[in-house]
Amino acid sequence: MAPPEDTSQPRLAAGCRWAAESKSGSAQERMILFPEGAIKLQGTGRQVLERCDGQRTFGQLIKELQGEFSAADPVKIRADISQFLEQLRHKRIVDY
Amino acid sequence: MISNPLALIAEITHRCPLHCVYCSNPLELAAAGSELSTEKWIDVFQQAGKLGMLHAHFTGGEPLARPDLTELIAGAHHAGLYTNLITSGIGLGEARLKELVDAGLDHIQVSFQDSREEAANWIAGAKAHAHKIDLSHLIHQHKIAFTVNLVVHRQNIDHLEEMIAFIERLVPERMEIAHTQYYGWALKNRAALLPTRAQLEKAVQVVAAAETRLAGRIRIDSVVPDYYARFPKACMGGWGRRLMLINPAGKVLPCHAAEVIPDMTFENVRDQSLEFIWQRSSSFQRFRGEEWMPEPCRSCDRRAEDFGGCRCQALLLTGNAAATDPACSLAPAHHIVEAALAEANSSAAVSQPITAASFVQLQHRTENLWSYRTNPE
């Protein structure tokens, strides 16, 4: 299984969707529902997945987040997000 | 204050066109005339949503046997629940599938009994296999998640590799490979279903290889048979900790088989709210937490992981629902499970796995092998 490429367009996999806001415990938190469970997301994880809209490319997504966290090492940001999406693809929550 | 339940298992009918020999329904099925109305189910889903539940799993029997399934799915969807239909697919064509998806269906799980048509129909006691394959192709026209469930046991486990390859061609997002769990019909038919240790060990390797090969394409969830495990399964994630099951007649149960436990009263959604039942009913509190636990569970490091195993299995095998699950290698009654395993592994085995020949021939040889699940009145 390969990590996303710059031209990949990450999106939530079939059958995975955001829960209504009322389902999460706080305003910082959002939840993604999938067949056998749910994950709560906040902070960076949430920012990444909210950009997995099937429109943006992985390259654009990385650029946006590197801009957002300009104090952090851009190489590390790319590596972390790539790994995060690869893990979620493994679980069939994200496709790219 | 206990946390809220996460999911509702809506057993909306016990009627089913299939007669699977390992059906998880109780031996005493709920009569068709006792089923909850459309309105009551929709009210239940509203309550579930307000209680903070996330998922509604529609199961049966065969959920499609209810003509109002589309309304029920819509009701659960509007209550904010993620909807999952667990089905044989019998009764589902192009038009009804579209209706269900439009009503808010998120996920469909279709069970297959085998990769070989004769063998599959033999297990199901019905000619269902070919229809399921057609249905799988229809599902891909919609943006819903598709899981194929395959129950494995003594009679089919030897060609697990072939079955996985078969499922792969149906292109689901997920594949669930579940060993038979011995309750109800499956317990009745255990001698014909329990695999040998050699069969099991080979199956574990086959699944591991498939997981690696299919990574990123098809997720494999596998359920290992607890009879062969060292420790019991955390049944339902613990009694009254995560799930509520409502049977066709409205009885609210902590798990599928709970009705086998004597001296227990289960509340009905016709009389009580889900919130009351979750928080205050004696049935949901009976085995919640650790107070009820006997030794060795009470002082066991694993008690917060497996919660003492399954209460129904404890009852079915030992006669005492509060005993440590006999599947646990530390259980005082573990010898009961060991005896079943010894029988399954003995050379004078109860039944050798049958090679699928023709459906008619199989049915003929089956008469003394097992009992097909019946239908409610």
Outline the structure in words.
- The complex is a heterodimer of chains A (96) and B (377).
- In chain A, 29% of the residues are buried.
- By secondary structure, chain A is of the alpha+beta class.
- Chain A has three helices and five strands; from the N terminus they run E-E-E-E-H-H-H-E.
- In chain A, the strands form two sheets. Chain A has a three-stranded antiparallel sheet. A two-stranded antiparallel ribbon of chain A has the order 1-5.
- Chain B has 377 residues and is an alpha/beta fold.
- Chain B has 15 helices and nine strands.
- The interface between A and B is medium-sized, with 22 and 23 residues.
Radius of gyration of chain B: 20 Å
Look at the structure and give the mean pLDDT of chain B: 91
DSSP strand (E) fraction of chain A?
Answer: 15-25%
Give, in order, the helices and strands of chain B.
EHEHEHEHHEHEHHHEEEHHHHHH
Task: Count the DSSP helices of chain B.
Answer: 15
Mean pLDDT of chain A: 91
Helical percentage of chain A = 25-40%
Low-confidence stretches of chain B at least 5 residues in length (pLDDT < 50)?
none
The termini of chain A sit apart by: 11 Å
How many distinct helices of chain A?
A: 3
Multimeric status of the protein: heterodimer
**Biggest protein-protein interface?**
A-B, 22 and 23 residues
Number of strands of chain B: 9
State which percent range the strand residues of chain B make up: 5-15%
Radius of gyration of chain A: 13 Å
- Give me the side-by-side strand order of the main sheet of chain A: 2-3-4
Major sheet description of chain A: 3 strands, antiparallel
Largest sheet of chain B at a glance? 9 strands, mixed
Structural class of chain B: alpha/beta
**What string gives the helices and strands of chain A in order?**
EEEEHHHE
